[in-house]
Each structure stands twice: as C-alpha cells, then as structure tokens.
C-alpha cells in the first residue's frame, strides 16, 4: 500500500468492524426492493443501503481501520454440534440473492477487506478483530444488529446497534447494556443462555425472562454461580431451570464468541484507504448508483496524484465590438473552436449572458450584457457560419439558449456531451465538469450545473468571463481527445449522421411545445380531488368511521393487520408491507371494502400529482415544453424531463383522460399520432431470423396469439386472453433478459410454471433461444453489444469474476441490441420526417416523441400529405426481414388521436 493511498490518520486510532450479513439484511428491509433495481432487473437495495450506512459511519466515526466480516453458507462448529442451530429461519427473499456478492465487490473497490472463515461465524471474526484491535491499542467500534455482540463491550470496544432502518445507529457502551439488561456486558452471554435466543433457535428456560435471569446473575455472580447454587433456587422457575439446565449449558457454549481465530488478514491490511476510483466508477455505473457515487467521492476526496488540476489557459481577449469579433475569427477560426455559453438562472431555466471561445492559441469572450447592434450582428454572422468549425458541450441546450436571443448556431461539428455518451453510455453523468475531470484531469471549479446542461458560474465575483473561457478550452480539448476514441469504437457516424442532427430536431420540438387545454386540466384536478375525498370517506366508513392517514404505512399496518386482521403481507423491518403490489394481491384475496377505497385513493392521488405537475409546467404561451435528454438511457432511448411526457398514464380510463388535455394549437387543424406496432418483437424476429416469428408478421397474424397457439398447442382461435397475456409478457421479457423468477413474479405464477412456459417457448422458437445465447457469447468476446446501426454498449462486467455483475451485464447484452435498435429506428424516422416537412415547405411540425410514437401538429390542408410522409419515413427507417407496421391516428387531442 502506497503512502498516497492512505487517509490521514486521526487520533485515536479506531477500528470499525461491520457484521456484513446483519447490516445487509437490515439495509434490504429498510429500503424497498422495488425502488432499487438496475435497468436489467438486478435488485440493489441491500447494496445501496449497506454502502450508504458505511459512508455515514466513516463520516461520523472517522475510523482509521475498517473491515467487514461475513458468514459463509458452509456449516459452522455450532451447527455441527447442534443441528437445530439457527433452524426455522425464514427463507431468504429472492430479491436478496446475489446482493452479498455485490456488497463484497464494492468493498473490494473501496479497498476495504472482507473476511470469511470456513467453520466459523462472522461473530467470531468480529470478536477476534475486537481483541486484536484492543491489543494493538486501537479503539474498536463493532457495527452489528446481533445482541451477542454486547459481550464484546469494554472500555475500548463499543457496539453500534441499529434500531431503525440504516440511519438510527446509537452506540452501546457498558452503561447502556446495564441500563437495559441489568448485567455487565461480559455477563450478557450468561443472560442470553438463560433466556434463549429465538433468532438462533436456542430455546431458553421456560418462564425465565431477562429480569429474572439478571436477578440470578447479580445474586450468584454469573451463570457458573447459578449452576453451583441451582438447588437453592425455589419455585416453578427453579424447577424449570433444573429441568432445562442442559439447554442452558449448551446455549452458553454456543453463544460465547471466539476471540482467538487465526485470521487471514492482519490489522495493518485494514488501514482505511481511498477507494479505487476507476473500479468504483465502473461498478457504480453497472449498479446505477449516482448520488451514492458523489457521496463516496465527496467523503474521500481525490487521490493526491490524480487530483484534477485547474485548467491552465492563455489570457483571453474581450471582443467588445464587431471589428474585434471579425478579426479574431479571421485569425483563429480556421481550426476547431471550443464554444461555451455562460448562463444565469432565469425562470426555472437559464439566460445566456456571454459566449466564450477557445482556439489552439487564443481565447476570447463576448459579453452579451454589453453589446450593441453592430457587434451582435457580427457575432450572429460567425455563429451561423458553417465554415467556422465549432465544438460545444450540449449542442441542443446551447442552440436553444442562443435562439432565445435571436442567434442561430451552425457549423457545430462536435457535441462533447454526446461524444462522451457514445463512448461510455452507461456512465451516469456527462456534465462537462465530470467529463473534463475524468478524461483531461482538469478542474473547472464548477459549483453546480445550471439548466440546459450549461455550467453554473460564480457570478458574485468581478470576473465572469474566465470560468466560461476555461469551459470553452475544456470543450475544445475534450473534442480533440475524444474524437479518436469515438472513431475507434465506431461511433463517429452515429454522432454526425444521427445524434447531432437529431439534437437540432429535438431543439425545435422543445421550443414548439404542445398546446394544453388548461380549463380541462383544472377540471381534471378538481375531479381527482373529489375522487380522493370520496375514497377517503369510503375508507373511513369501512373501519367504523375511524380517521387515519391513508398515506401512512404505519397507520395502514395497524388498520389492515390489527384492526381488520387481514392476511399478513410480506414481512419487512417496519412490520408488513403496504406496497401497491402486495395490497393488490390482498384485495384480490379478500375484496375488503377498505382496500377497495384505499386503492381508489392511491390511484386518484397519483393521477392528481401528475396533473399538478402538468399545471406547473404550462408556459406563458399556453404550451408545455418538455426537454429531451439524449444521454440518459444507455440503450440510446430518449428521455423526457421537466415534465416527463413519456410517463403519462394510458392503462386506465382515468389516466387516459390526462391525454385529453394535450390539444392541437391555434392555427393548426389536428394532431396526428403515429407509432410502431410491436417494434421490439419485430427486431427480435429480424435479429434471430426465427422462421416462425417472421411467418407471423409476413402473414399479418396477431403475433401473441400465433405464439400462444404454438406454445400451448392449441388453434389460434382457442388461445385465451390469459394465454395471450402470458406469452406476450414472456416474449417481451426475453428481450429484457427476464429470468424464470422474474416471469413468475410478473405473471403471478410459480417459478416452475414459468420455467416450463419458457421451455415450451424455446422448443417452438429455437432460433430465438439460439440468438439470445449467441448475442451474449459474442458480447463476451467483443466486450460490447451492437445495434443494427452500430450503436455500441461496452459491458466490461461480462468478464467479471463476480457472478451478480456478470448476470447484470448478460441481461444488458440481451436487451441493448433490441431496445437500442428500436431507439435508433425511431430516431432515423424523426430525421426523415423532419427533413421531408422542410423539403416540402409544410407548416406542420413534430411535437413529441414517446418511445415508439410520434405526435405531430398538422396545419390545415396538409393532413393527407403529412400522413403519407410519416408512413413512408417511419416504415422505411430500417430494412428488416419483417415489415415495420405504422399505425396512425388523427384528433383534436392526443387521446382523440390514439389508435
């Protein structure tokens, strides 16, 4: 270990020892599994909670040494001596499987040793570490949810014992143990031997509780004294003790922690180091941990040798008049120029206040706050000139900022945000400051990002130009640095022929926005409020008028499982879960009116929240202007933000009412919606070349009914809706790497039935099975997957020695070519439609892209022309072995235009 990797030691030296399984389970039950999962379906709640807790411990306790002990699945000396030891424990939830491996992988990347020993428990490792730590003169902090750890408490060793979730972790010292159990810490194992430990399946003496046990221990000086005077103890409890004395002796033998193991790791190896940044970046990308990544690096800081340096740049020239602008570009604009817009927050977005330019040998800044008409005209000329090659970070955002000032931006040959994304699409952040730090080791001294992907500059000081010039310099250097990397990865054509042109299309769509019927939006808000009030009243009536907070899980647990005594749901740390899936199952089983009202309340509340978000998003022009992100989804799909218009509910009648508020704007005749039918399954048919799937599409069959007839061995007309739903879920699930467990959960069937269903599917559609196997095998060799159009997703975890990380990467390898190809196809369609509208001089325009659907605003007299060109360009966006079926609808509102 080099001196540079060690953290500066604190006084006194302190060893933090964590009971790995105990804390992982606590984290698992504290954080909802459904809220922590990767795009490929790997649950990560235990990992996230564990790391979060660890970072909190390190920040609060400032340890100099850290180690984590884990149990093994192999038998221990305790289970060999007593076969019922820890018997009867609940089955480990499926969602927990694999998360211990991932936690250990994170610890490895954090340079924190994890220790296991065959034949012994983590508790014995912890006890040995406590003894070794004390002997080395260290203070010891043991983090464990196991009360057996209390026996380790001394003047030098404390136990941090979690009470609620993963945040409430008070220290237990000798005084705390004595206050709670009336015995000294070294006597706690005596007390536990008498009382028993349910978690370990160690039965105690019937009728003897902690108070009685503590009284005996204090009277006779401990368990040995109790057993010596066993015949002096009178009454039923005395008889019970004598009858179960063998259990007591066994318990004491088994709950006593060993402190003299020969550990494979010494104390010196536990010195807290800075994490391996590269390993953490790669791992957290795979686990999709973003905020946690920032917390970790903020806590540990940068490696002294790797700390980014402030960008050293040449002095910049202030271009204050038209002549200076023309002269500077005539002298320096022949080669690539980095451009950056300095902004200030404004109305939830940003306004541009200046433009910085960086050439190979000179830098310049133009203040838009102090500019006359002639100077602005000269600036407009160089910005719009295609002959001046420019690089920007976030072309779309910069284009919109300048367009708001009446300035056109052309000649942009590189968007370093998109370039960095195409090189590393799984990276969580592509902000300029992050990319410059990673690739150039440059610090831009940026506090936080502003709107539109620009940098928030420190405008309180006298110099606002220098930070912007540094950013422009970083953009230019990044463009030169990343270009060969992008070309090597085959992404240069995607940048220039798809993503950059698409940025311009998206900018126009965002600026156009979509018209909103605000009166109907207000009406919807009132209607959902009335539904909430009615459902609340019905819920209260169902429990004899008692008023409870229907949004409080704690109060719902009392009502459901105590007052109404309904069947228990899944056990979690805070009781029994009240999540949507569990309550839906409970409603199906019981049909209780309280649950009916509660579900109605929840649905209406969610819908009202959506409506409330839309109301806030309506701009002064009466339209909603969403923002499309090109660098969020690793597969290439666009994301809609502020507000998210890709998440407008459509499955329920009430949800579909929300789409009615999106209407055709003044001066236009109708909205037109066009979407692809089953595009991902068509891509699956194309890539797998499965003859059965190709036949179904060639003949215009209902694919899922066709597949169902083959899987279930019945005629197509005999395929029930239930059968069709099952094969539909499975067909799409296969494209996402869905496991038999995932399918069973989705369809609410047994894992065995799901496994049989998948087996029958593959028996009939063997080419699909062969393709899915081949795509993972090829990705493992190449290191990446590729879409039909060459979009790559690099998956280094395919070669990981960690099974869970490999599984995540394998599911991504299955999904990326299919979903990524679908994303590329709709993007190509958008480019074709946009170009056709311009070439034909049509007034109609694209407004929204929602996954596989486009929404256009059609001008009067252009309906037939626009429908024809939309069908043409969407239908020809890719040359597949099966036809691309495009469905079109027309109507005043988005809902009316549905088809």
UniProtKB/TrEMBL annotation:
Residues 655-862 form the DNA-directed DNA polymerase family A palm domain. Keywords: DNA damage, DNA repair, DNA replication, DNA-binding, DNA-directed DNA polymerase, Exonuclease, Hydrolase, Nuclease, Nucleotidyltransferase, Transferase. GO terms for biological process: DNA-templated DNA replication; double-strand break repair. It is an enzyme of class 2 (transferase). Its EC number is 2.7.7.7. PANTHER family: DNA POLYMERASE I (PTHR10133), DNA POLYMERASE NU (PTHR10133:SF27). Belongs to the DNA polymerase type-A family. This is DNA polymerase I. It comes from Paeniglutamicibacter cryotolerans.
